[in-house]
Write a structure and sequence with these properties.
The structure holds two protein chains of two kinds. Chain A is of the alpha/beta class. Chain A contains ten helices and ten strands. Chain A has one domain (3-246): 3-Layer(aba) Sandwich (Rossmann fold), CATH 3.40.50.300. In chain A, the strands form two sheets. Chain A has a six-stranded mixed sheet with strand order 6-7-8-3-9-10, sandwiched between helices. A four-stranded antiparallel sheet of chain A has the order 2-1-4-5, with helices on one face. The chains are: A alpha/beta, B mainly alpha. Chain B: It comes from Liquorilactobacillus uvarum DSM 19971.
């Protein structure tokens, strides 16, 4: 397997509480990877390790190594600003800025110093199309993003990440606050962009994981229990805990 | 009567308590409304008397430059030109807020975005301390430090709009700062996270997202600062020179609506032109504070949309 992201022996502590207990996990370039597990198992924390969002939380300490495309992202030389341009993130709650749709999507480009109106316009159209929300918003790009429905807001947030053209997209339960139709749109959209991005999605929805992901990793109490091709994890789990979880016996 | 029927049909103890509470609150509200209304009616009737009883011209009052209530002008109406005081009041207010706003925003950003818990707590108590200092103390410091400083290093007698606005700058700073802090804290954390996750630096996040989404709150803070500056009497009176003449520069002696009021109110007799003229100034102050309140409301309404 050609490994694009590798994490070795990642331990993470909130104060004294150990939230990740030595995670060894890697992801190939391109494709959709699902992280599943019950609440509080550390999967969201692990996701935030990959773009160093945990740095923002005081009293978090971490050991182990995380390499993306061969580069250690926790070395002192790493610029988190550059890292986060390469590793985009979509949050559980749709969180568009209280600006227009256009300004939301161009935000990442503007802060990177792109001012050319034509480039911005092109990127807005392309990103909104990729995020499957273009047809719904193309006539009022200058309306406030807050006036959209939750599902549309979330797709605008995804477009906002796509506009920066990251290598990796992290999604932290992106559909858990949405209705089934919006969730379905986002799932379909993820399937259309799986060939271009390395996508890692945290989800509570096992059906969602089995529908869209190529690979699945199962977390339990801060430990990685099992990881592999989605088909084999779901149909032929190697561990009793995995079997219990995916068959709904707990969680 | 049947005891069960009696129990159901009479008010329970809780209901009576509820009623009692309602009566107490409504009485308090009614009293406060009454007090506010009577203040307004009193000031308005007194202030209007200048124009209806003493036959002063309202337009001359607003635009005239000579303030000498005991003298009559060529047309036989009292010389009541309040423009010098109006200019003085607006001058010190606007300058003070212009000086204070950058400092207030800087301090507020430091407290909310940069400082650790300890630095934040220290600044918080410094600001609370600044609020608590009585205005006469500010005036006294202004008189003994700022006035000589302006006289020696900038020019003039030291008394004037500039000194007044320096004193007011310190006095409105805590108001504007603490309200700005509140509006910055009200910016949802996920805006910040979203911005940082897109590869924005801390400063980009601050000025492109945090400041932008709290603009209406910061404007409200500035307006409150203006209202405070506009209404401050004692400290300004001590450093502005109190000459009821049109200021020719920031360094010449001037006066404000409030300073003329505090200076004059003890030296006039109720019912005279001079006294009524002061009430007219008070009416302007009241209307201005009403105006500031309405502006704050309008900003708040716009900010919510």
């Amino acid at each position: 397997m050609d490994e694009f992201i590798t994490t070795n022996d990642v331990h993470l502590y909130y104060g004294k509480k150990e939230a990740l207990k030595g995670i060894n996990l890697s992801f190939p370039a391109k494709g959709i990877n699902a992280l599943i597990g019950p609440s509080g198992c550390g999967k969201s924390t692990y996701l935030r390790v990959l773009n160093r969002m945990n740095d923002l939380i005081p009293q978090v300490t971490m050991t182990g190594s995380v390499k993306i495309n061969g580069v250690d992202i926790y070395s002192p030389k790493t610029d988190t600003v550059d890292l986060r341009k390469k590793v985009g993130m979509v949050f559980q709650q749709p969180n568009p800025f209280p600006f227009s749709i256009y300004e939301n999507v161009t935000y990442g480009l503007r802060i990177a110093g792109i001012k050319d109106k034509q480039v911005l316009d092109e990127r807005v159209e392309r990103s909104l199309k990729q995020a499957a929300v273009w047809d719904e918003v193309k006539d009022d790009l200058h309306k406030s993003a807050l006036s959209l429905s939750g599902g549309q807001q979330q797709r605008v947030c995804i477009a906002r990440v796509l506009a920066v053209q990251p290598d990796v997209i992290l999604l932290d339960e992106p559909t858990s606050a949405l209705d089934p139709v919006s969730s379905g749109l986002i799932e379909d959209m993820l399937l259309t962009i799986r060939d271009r991005y390395t996508i890692i999605i945290v989800t509570h929805n096992l059906q969602q994981a089995s529908r869209i992901s190529d690979r699945t990793a199962f977390f339990l109490n801060g430990e990685l229990i099992e990881a592999g091709k989605t088909k084999s994890v779901f149909l032929n789990p190697q561990h009793q805990a995995t079997d219990d979880y995916i068959s709904g016996r707990f969680g | 009567m049947d005891p069960i029927k009696k129990k159901i049909q009479s008010n329970s103890r809780e209901t009576r308590q509820d009623l009692f509470g309602k009566i107490v609150t409504y009485t308090c509200i009614a009293l406060i409304v009454l007090v506010v209304l009577s203040i307004f009616v009193f000031v308005a009737s007194k202030g209007m008397a200048t124009f209806f009883v003493n036959k002063a011209n309202f337009w001359d009052f607003l635009s005239g430059k000579n303030w000498n209530p005991t003298m009559l002008d060529s047309k036989g109406s009292p010389m009541l030109g309040a423009l010098p005081m109006i200019t003085g009041s607006f001058g010190v207010t606007i300058l003070a807020v212009l000086f204070a706003t950058p400092f207030a925003i800087g301090t507020a950003l430091y407290m909310t975005e940069i400082a650790s818990g300890k630095g934040e707590r220290i600044l918080q108590s410094v600001i609370e301390l600044l609020v608590g200092i009585p205005s006469v103390v500010y005036g006294f410091i202004g008189l003994s430090v700022i006035v000589p400083f302006v006289r020696n290093y900038i020019g003039g007698s030291g008394y004037g709009i500039l000194s007044g606005s320096f004193v007011l700058f310190v006095m409105v700073l805590p108001t504007v700062t603490s309200m700005t802090v509140d509006s910055l804290r009200a910016v949802p954390r996920f805006y910040k996270e979203a911005s940082l996750a897109l590869g924005a630096t801390k400063w980009q996040t601050i000025y492109k997202v945090i400041l932008r989404s709290s603009t209406s709150g910061i404007l409200t803070a500035i307006i409150f600062g203006m209202a405070r500056a506009f209404g401050e009497a004692l400290a300004v009176q001590m450093v502005i020179g109190n000459a009821a003449i049109m200021p020719t520069s920031l360094l010449s002696s001037a006066s404000t609506l409030t300073s003329v009021l505090t200076m004059g109110i003890g030296n006039t007799v109720m019912g005279t032109v001079a006294n009524n003229a002061l009430w007219s100034l008070a009416l302007i102050l009241l209307l201005m504070s009403l105006f500031f309140n309405i502006v704050v409301r309008l900003i708040g309404r716009k900010g919510r949309m």
